[in-house]
Design goal:
Layout: H1 2-26, H2 35-45, E1 52-53, H3 56-63, E2 72-77, E3 86-91, H4 97-116, H5 121-128, E4 131-135, E5 138-143, H6 147-157
Antiparallel strand pairs: 1-2, 2-3, 3-5, 4-5
Helix pairs in contact: 2-6, 4-5
């Protein structure tokens, strides 16, 4: 009977220790990296194609997000009416902001997909292969032929 109790206690202790280790490993920590450094890495290392840097007013116009609510924002957009490429990076003040930013970005993405359905096959493919990623206190969104490359540079830079 004592051996069974010892075995049960040992198994439970191991399970709790594994659970705690799993939780600690999967928690994404906040990054202290300045958003300008992240931007510099992406601009110098990645291929932004036709995207040009836009001002913060465009973030409000395109996504409905107020840049003053965040620790930092970066927005690059392709030139021309048929160019759907864009890159948005937001350094969040808190993890709670991620869901509202993601909702605004998904709304934008859905609108773009609807606009280009039936006649913009190249644009539609880019939109469908877009990348949305939340990593700690950073939010990342990109529509580009080089979306995976830009996401990797972003992940390495934070």
């Amino acid at each position: 009977m004592k051996n069974k109790m010892f075995l049960i206690k040992t198994v439970l202790t191991c399970c709790i220790a594994l659970f705690i280790a799993y939780m600690l490993i999967n928690v994404e920590s906040f990054s202290n990296v300045d958003i300008k450094e992240v931007e510099n890495q992406i601009v110098t290392t990645g291929d932004l194609g036709t995207m040009k840097k836009s001002n913060n007013m465009m973030i409000k116009k395109v996504f409905g997000l107020n840049d003053a609510e965040y620790d930092g924002t970066i927005y690059y957009k392709g030139e021309g009416a048929m160019d759907v490429t864009e890159l948005l990076i937001i350094k969040l003040n808190s993890k709670d902001q991620a869901s509202s930013v993601e909702s605004a970005v998904r709304k934008r993405l859905d609108s773009q997909i609807q606009n280009f359905t039936n006649y913009g096959t190249n644009q539609l493919q880019l939109l469908e292969n877009s990348v949305i990623k939340v990593s700690g206190n950073y939010f990342f969104y990109v529509v580009s032929e080089n979306a995976v490359q830009l996401k990797d540079i972003f992940s390495d830079s934070i």
